[in-house]
Amino acid sequence: MIKAKAGHQGRSNLRGEQHTSHADQDPKLPGSLTRRELLGASAPLLAVLTGALPLGLSAAAPPWARAAAAAAPSGSASGPIIPSPEVKAALDKALARAIPKAKTAVALRLVFHDAGTFSSPPGDGGLNASIQYELDRPENRGLKRGWRIVEQVRDDLRGTTAEGLATDADLVALAGAFAVRLCGGPDIPLALGRPVAAAASPDPPGRMPAEDFTAAQLKANFASKGFSVQEMVALSGAHTLGSKGFGDPTRFDNEYYQSLLRRPWTNKDDPMASMIGLPSDHVLPDDPECLPYIQQYAADQEAFFRDFSAAYVKLTSLGVPGWA
Ligand code: HEM
């Protein structure tokens, strides 16, 4: 069943059906964490929360979160919801069933192709599960397999404490984060409550970057979604997963950046090496703005994990009213 605004349905379920053992729980948000627990949450998550929950903005909130909060009409967005440990466990169990290592790359790619339709202005598109109506676009070839993950997780959640709490858009975001963690990458906490697109409403076409883009075109494309060059370089590290030749296809690490610095595709003696990476990867180390971040992430995997996590939280908030 497709709901015009499943996010709202999810929130009303939160209020009406979910019970929790936390004695000091905010009664308006059963099933979610307390204010005290929220304040103990990780920095990226807190950044999202401070963009939309009525907690006030912390000084640590990034500019995009502050801008989003300022732009949100007051009282219009009920804000991100943090799953309780019980709900998170049910989500993780369903995600683990649906995402073996062999499906991690497609799960992560699905996130970018759902969220990457965002453009500001006009501010439409984004992570809203509309990818299900865009699967026949050439740039989305191979992603039907990814969307089936979302359907399987949704089905598997029936009868669990998490039923109805995560929208399909949330499941897209959660599946990508689960894939990253399963492959040894960072644990990226995510909030729930993303509304989904109206039935049969694809996002505007022509907003995804193409693999033959120059570095300037890539930067302009990511800037139109609100991303800095640093965030673009950090997100591009997602190509460490999958079959593009950046080390183990199911290991999320900083091999992508180390490989970009070696530029194996320039080795004319090794035809296999020329297969490594996409043209859009090859242009990055030749761009003077991108190169310092590539060098940093190649030398410091923790920095990559930290910056990827923050950019991923932002990616999975694109187009969500009041979030980003
Ligand atoms: C910088 C612009 C980007 C371009 C032009 C681009 C384009 C592509 C292309 C053409 C593929 C190959 C698809 C295939 O094998 O059929 C691919 C794979 C992939 N992309 Fe991107 N991508 C970009 C950024 C991103 C971002 C930001 C993410 C996620 C945060 C991402 C995640 C992935 C993943 C995980 C794969 C491997 C999929 C697999 O092997 O199944 N990409 N990308």
Automatic annotation (TrEMBL):
UniProt region (Disordered), positions on chain: 1-32
Q: Can you supply a Gene Ontology BP term from the record?
A: hydrogen peroxide catabolic process
Residues in coiled coil: none
Q: What is its EC number?
A: 1.11.1.11
The record's listing under PROSITE patterns reads: PEROXIDASE_1 (PS00435), PEROXIDASE_2 (PS00436), PEROXIDASE_4 (PS50873)
- In this chain, composition skew of type Basic and acidic residues spans 14-27
Cited InterPro entries: Ccp1-like, Haem_peroxidase, Haem_peroxidase_sf, Peroxidase_I, Peroxidases_AS, Peroxidases_heam-ligand_BS
Top-level taxon of origin: Eukaryota
Quote the protein name from its UniProt record. Answer: L-ascorbate peroxidase
